Amino acid sequence: MSNRRPPNRRHRPRHARYAALALAVALLPIASPPARAEALSPQLQAIVTQYVGPLVGDPALIAAVRAQNAETADYDEAGIAALDAHWKSEIGASEIPTISKVWGNAVADQLRAQVEASGGLIREVLLMDARGLNVAVSHLTSDYWQGDEDKYLETYPHGAGAVHLGPVEFDESSQVYMQQLSMTVSDPQSGEPLGALTIGLDAERLP
Length: 207
Known about the structure:
Helices cover 36% and strands 21% of the residues. It is an alpha+beta fold. The protein has a single domain (35-205), classed as PAS domain (Beta-Lactamase, 2-Layer Sandwich). The chain has a 6-stranded antiparallel beta sheet. A hairpin with a 6-residue loop joins strand 5 (176-186) and strand 6 (193-202). The longest helix has 15 residues, at 42-56. It is globular, with a radius of gyration of 17 Å. Keywords: Signal. Residues 1-37 form the signal peptide.
C-alpha cells in the first residue's frame, strides 16, 4: 500500500500553447455512443490491445472489483451519496480514510505503474465497481461515484466488451487536453460484467 498522499486537484491558468488545440476541440463531437473495440480507429484499437486489455483482464484488478462489489451490492442511493460526500470533504484534508482506501491500495499502485510505463500517453487510470464507485485510482478524482457519467453508463450496463470514447477536454490539474477511453471489466470465463475501467489519454500524444 502506498504511503504517499494524493496531490490536490488545483486549477491553473491555461497556457498559451493550448490555444490552437482549444479551437480544434470546440469542433469535435460531444462523445461517441457505446461501441466495441473493433469500431475504434486502428490507433485506438492498438491502445486498447496494449494498455486497456491487459488491465481489464488482470486477475488482481478483477479480484479487487469482485471484493468491492460484495461490499457495495446493497448500498442504496443515500448511502452512495454519503460516501461521495465523504470523499469530496476529504480532498485537501489531513485525514483521508475514504480516499486512502482507493488511492493507496496495491491495485492503485499497479495503475500508477501503467501510467508511468506509457511514457506520457496515459495520464490517469480509474477502476470502478458495478455501482460506479471507485475501486482504485492512479490520481485523485473529484468524485468517488462515477455512476452518473458516460465512462460508467456507456460501458458496464452494456455488458462485456463495451467501449466508450469520450470527448477531448482540457484538464485543469494536468494542463493538458485529455480523452477518456473506457471499457467494461468482465469475468474472463463467464463474460459477466463486473465494473469498468477508464484511462485518460493525452490527446496531443494520440496518433
